[in-house]
Specification:
Elements lengths: L7 E4 L3 H12 L4 E5 L10 H12 L14 E5 L12 E4 L5 H14 L5 E4 L6 H4 L5 H5 L1 E6 L8 E6 L5 H13 L4 E4 L8 H19 L3 H8 L9 H9 L3 H12 L5 H5 L4 H8 L12 E4 L6 E5 L6 E3 L15 H5 L4 H19 L8 H11 L6 H8 L1 H10 L6 H6 L5 E4 L2 E5 L5 E3 L9 H7 L4 E2 L3 E5 L4 E6 L8 H17 L2 E4 L12 H9 L3 H19 L5 E3 L3 E4 L1 H7 L3 E2 L5 E4 L13 H10 L10 H11 L7 H6 L16 H11 L11 E2 L4 H16 L5 H14 L11 E2 H16 L2 H13 L6
Parallel strand pairs: 1-2, 1-4, 2-3, 4-5, 5-6, 7-8, 17-18, 18-19, 19-21, 20-22
Antiparallel strand pairs: 6-7, 9-10, 10-11, 12-13, 13-14, 15-16, 16-17, 23-24
Helix pairs in contact: 1-2, 7-10, 7-14, 7-15, 8-9, 8-14, 14-16, 20-22, 21-31, 22-30, 24-25, 25-29, 28-29, 29-30
Length: about 775
């Protein structure tokens, strides 16, 4: 029996079901979305149709591009269950009630084809309970696929197979979710809550209970249990607000019902009446009136407030002053022994959480790395629980737990004084529950730069960048500066690297494994130079950047950029000068320099003009390309997905998108190698630009926006300088060819004028201090 997945059906158009359907559509596949028929409904498909309308308005966006909504076919389970007859995978995402699910499965069984896999998105009901009493054939083709919300952005997918499940059914879905949906697929044991929710709910429960017991405020709790523990800046309470307080009692209740009395959840989780009272009053988190935090908009204001954990009153949110809340994850043992209230809290909360994590192997997960990956991707921990234990020491943790009267899990005893992870000869190993170290192997087709860096030395390196050999004649240029901001050292190493590749290699990939590809030029460096009036240094930085990116474009070998996360300003300009771009699906790119009162000056204006003037689908004419580029740059337009990058011409027709972040480097390397044979550098482009008449047109447009309050006075100044570049300057003439170097010279000239402007310097300083634009 040959299986493949092309068409999918999702039954249940609630938040999760609709989100899953949207992401299937993002992957380029047709998806059927069904739900019940409401009583007395005129439109029998109203629930599914309404869900798609909500998806189109969702923030953050559920669709990577609005056109993807056209791939969603809506219907209802009374009239349209026959639509599943040609589906390869049916995902059930209905209410967590066993009777409702099993009744639906019996209806599905009437219509599904023999190769169709059926899965449940349940997070609480064991698989064996779900298939109990159903046919052998149904059980053979049934699995659990537990997505995390929102499905587009959360990379974790927990899968469970039953005793009777055909291994091929699990394999085909897992491969699809890996390659097409971009998920990190973890196989879990068929136990309540699986891995991430089992541990995550326990952690959040301990965090809340112990905060109240230790007398901490909401802000103090988030400060201590956030960054010092490797948890995102949302902290515990910010995360609970994001997830939704109303989900916690339901999930906890389900797990308490399913877990044996000996489980630590029963021993330590007492429940908190505060949460029930908040839910009753509509304080369910961000989707309600607020949660542990809320925004008070009384009298036209906008004041962030936090709840008092003792009396439920709200007051203006204030920053924590606890010393323990200022530590870093590497100081974890120091945090857990700190004398202030935060340190005492951290120990009481985290010691039980880490002990519980150790108790879940092998009951809920076969490997410790699965638990760590589940918490990193499912709850956004920077480090998994076993990585945290390695920082403080398993033996140290065991002794402290024993002193507190907490039972030491068998896995901690097995570890003793050993690390859970070790590296030998560049290869990673993890400790198994039997006490032996087992090799950690990446899935087929995955190349990670972190692995290459363990087994080799860089070809070239300085403080801001490195060049690595990734095999088959391909090198990887890696940004390593703070937030991968671009500085003169990156440009210097890139120029050396281009010479190195020309002599000894075939192709280059520009890639890194940071949260963002690059946030753009180093503004702090530019502001420092401006404050000491080092104008020649700034101009030299601009010219060096132009020369470097132009050298990338006209190199004698292919260069492929592989961005993920933000690729803004100068980061976007690197993409524009590459032969090909192989982005991760969640790449957010754009030329945003106007936000700090500047314009793109490393060839960004030139390259966008080139792409739009040569685009066969775009209207022709003296101002067509310039107008489009002016619109994008003057409004700091950012593509909110790789799919939207194509609309902006940051991606070209033959560029491809990688859905799985772990597969990005391998895909970029393959793309680079595909360009090697017969490679020729691109020909230089010339332009016919409108000159002064075009500048007048742009000025009139911007003046109109200023008059209605949609643009500021300094926007007017910046846009005038941008308009000069895009129209070729005062002396331009439509009959005279304008070359690339002419545009670069204009970029440089306009940039230097703007960087001296006091309003631009105010914008730069405001961005550095506040991390948001100044509207001056």
């Amino acid at each position: 029996m040959t299986r493949s997945i092309e068409k999918i059906c999702v039954i249940g158009a609630g938040v999760m079901g609709a989100g899953i359907a949207a992401h299937v559509a993002n992957a380029g596949h047709e998806v059927v979305l069904l739900d019940i028929v409401p009583q007395d409904a005129r439109n029998r498909n109203i629930i599914a149709e309404g869900a798609v309308k909500k998806l189109l308005k969702a923030n953050p966006a559920a669709f990577m591009h609005k056109r993807n909504a056209k791939r969603v076919i809506t219907g209802n389970i009374e009239d349209n269950l026959d639509l599943i007859s040609d589906c390869d995978w049916v995902i059930e995402a209905v209410i967590e009630r066993l009777d409702i699910k099993q009744d639906l499965y019996r209806k599905i069984e009437e219509f599904r084809k023999p190769t169709c896999v059926v899965s449940s998105n349940t997070s609480t009901i064991p698989l064996e309970t779900l298939v109990d009493g159903l046919s052998e054939d149904f059980a053979k083709n049934f699995i659990v696929t537990h997505f995390f919300n929102p499905p587009r952005y959360m990379r974790l997918l927990e899968v469970v197979r039953g005793i009777k499940t055909d291994p091929d059914a699990l394999a085909v879905v897992s491969q699809f979710c890996d390659h097409k949906l971009g998920k990190s697929v973890i196989e879990c044991k068929d136990s309540p809550g699986f891995i991430a929710n089992r541990l995550g709910i326990f952690w959040m429960g301990m965090a809340l209970q112990e905060a109240i017991a230790c007398g901490l405020t909401v802000e103090e709790t988030d400060a201590v249990a956030g960054k010092p523990c490797g948890v995102p800046k949302t902290g515990i309470f910010g995360l609970m607000d994001l997830v939704g307080l109303d989900l916690m009692p339901h999930v906890v209740g389900s797990m308490q019902q399913a877990l044996p009395p000996s489980d630590m959840l029963h021993q330590y989780f007492k429940g908190v009446s505060l949460v029930e009272e908040m839910i009753k009053d509509g304080y369910t988190g961000r989707k309600g009136k607020g949660g542990f935090y809320r925004i008070n908009r009384e009298d036209g204001g906008k004041v962030k407030e936090s709840v008092n954990l003792n009396d439920r009153s709200y007051a203006k949110s204030t920053k924590s002053t606890l010393a323990s809340g200022k530590l870093k994850p590497k100081d974890l043992r120091k945090l857990l022994t700190h004398e202030d209230r935060g340190g005492q809290y951290a120990w009481r909360m985290l010691s039980k959480t880490l002990a519980y994590a150790a108790s879940l192997v092998p009951e809920a997960a076969e490997k410790i790395s699965d638990v760590d990956e589940a918490m990193r991707l499912g709850y956004n921990w920077k480090l998994g629980p076993f990585e945290l234990i390695d920082i403080i020491g398993a033996d140290w943790l065991s002794e402290k737990l024993k002193a507190d009267g907490v039972e030491v899990p068998a896995l901690l005893k097995t570890a003793g004084d050993r690390k859970f992870y070790k590296v030998t000869d560049g290869q990673r190993f993890e400790l198994s529950h039997t006490g032996e170290y087992i090799e950690m192997v990446r899935p087929d087709g995955v190349i990670m730069l972190e692995d290459i860096k363990r087994t080799s030395k860089p070809i070239l390196k300085n403080a801001s960048a490195s060049l690595w050999d990734i095999g088959d004649g391909v090198v990887c240029f890696e940004f390593t500066s703070m937030m991968n901001s671009l500085d003169p050292q990156i440009m210097q190493l890139m120029q050396k690297s281009l010479r190195e590749v020309k002599k000894n290699h075939k192709a280059m990939v520009i890639y890194n494994e940071g949260s963002n590809f690059s946030v753009g030029a180093n503004l702090g460096l530019a502001l420092f130079a401006a404050n000491i009036a080092a104008w020649s240094e700034i101009e030299n930085m601009v010219e060096t950047g132009q020369d470097t990116l132009k050298a990338i474009k006209y190199a004698a070998f292919p260069v492929v950029s592989a961005p993920a996360g933000m690729a803004l300003g100068g980061g976007c300009e690197f993409l524009l000068h590459s032969d090909a771009v192989q982005p991760h699906a969640e790449t957010y790119a754009g030329l945003v320099e106007v936000g700090v009162g500047l314009i793109p000056a490393w060839g960004g204006c030139k390259e966008m003009m080139s792409r739009w003037s040569t685009n066969p689908r775009h209207p022709k004419g003296p101002m067509a390309a310039a107008s489009k580029v002016f619109e994008m740059i003057s409004t700091a337009q950012v593509a909110k997905s790789a799919d939207e990058m194509r609309d902006m011409m940051i991606l070209r027709g033959d560029d491809h998108i990688t859905m799985n972040r772990y597969r990005l480097l391998a895909d970029a390397k393959a793309r680079a190698l595909s360009l090697v044979d017969g490679y020729e550098a691109p020909e230089e482009v010339t332009f016919h630009l409108a000159g002064e008449s075009g500048q007048v047109a742009f000025k009139m447009a911007v003046d109109g926006f200023v008059n209605i309050g949609k643009a500021t006075p300094h926007d007017q100044v910046v846009s005038a300088h941008l308009g000069q570049i895009l129209t070729g300057g005062a002396d331009a003439d439509l009959t005279v060819e304008c070359e690339e170097d002419d545009i670069l010279e204009l970029e440089r000239e306009m940039f230097m004028k703007l960087v001296r402007h006091p309003d631009t310097l105010a914008r730069v300083e405001h961005m550095l201090l506040k991390n948001k634009p100044l509207r001056n």
